[in-house]
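Input set for joint prediction.
Command: fold jointly, output tokens.
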Amino acid sequence: MSKILSDAGMDLLFRDARTHNAWQDKEVSDVLLEAIYDLAKLGPTSANCSPMRVVYVRSPEAKARLKPTLDAGNVEKTMAAPVTAIIGHDQEFFQHLPRLFPHAADARSWFAGKPAHIETTAFRNGSLQGAYFILSARALGLDCGPMSGFDNEAVDREFFPSGTVRSNFLCNLGHGDPKGLFPRSPRFDFDDVCTIL
Amino acid sequence: MSKILSDAGMDLLFRDARTHNAWQDKEVSDVLLEAIYDLAKLGPTSANCSPMRVVYVRSPEAKARLKPTLDAGNVEKTMAAPVTAIIGHDQEFFQHLPRLFPHAADARSWFAGKPAHIETTAFRNGSLQGAYFILSARALGLDCGPMSGFDNEAVDREFFPSGTVRSNFLCNLGHGDPKGLFPRSPRFDFDDVCTIL
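tokens >
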């Protein structure tokens, strides 16, 4: 017999989970930040390419470096969040395929010298992993505040000095204050965006 | 007190879940296909832009149209899968923002006439929604077989005739046959790809 997720689990990950804008003054431990990744890393990526790279911005010094890269509307909540995760993807991900996809000896050659294929693969799979990251954080009892409103190139320069990683989105993490929630916005109905052929 | 996901839930969505390559001969109902979307739609996207579009390929006729677009290694398992979902994203997503993000009267203007911003936003958020889709299917007791190996332009012509939707990835759905599983490939350790600042 098939198992399905409990109602409580569906509530925690999807139905009751909301994008938070205000934060309780509660720290998030290193162990919890590690546990988010340890769950999220198990989600599927093509050829197990795993391009996501994460910088957790937590100290006041690191927050101060992030602040000038943020859109005005994202400054206050991001400075108040216990942690802000920078989700990026490494354009050199394919160099690691001999380790990550060991049964295909030539996997690196599927990408080497093909910049458009590299970029698409890194962005697609880094974004999939970013979503696994959000749901893993919720699974571990944290609230998330993901956002796209920041200067990507400035973040890349400041936090990914290797030059091979592109920032994708930011995700505030902590225990949200429900007083800062907006009403949930409407979603498309099934028939608006799905077809069965 | 914070709630966290049960061990059984973490197993179902992440730890025991695997990418399946062989399928049991069990149908997947319309109700279940609708339920996947109804859960996945709740995951966050920037400005609630919700660009994902889904075509469920289930009938023999629709499978026959999909077959010539597949990479050789993906044909047999995809033809055998009870359903194959085509996950795409609509480049015209921003036309719907007055409905989806009603409190920002000018949201459409954030994108109109900005093709690079449109494309990046559609691809990022469509991929996030694709990951919510995979985990929602697992939450409902289905196994997934996501894959990138197909001719995107041919799929777009065949299944998204409006011309505004780009295919992102395919996801076989059903009840997997564990005999078709490969051993799980290794993942990066936390310290390989994550930093706490």
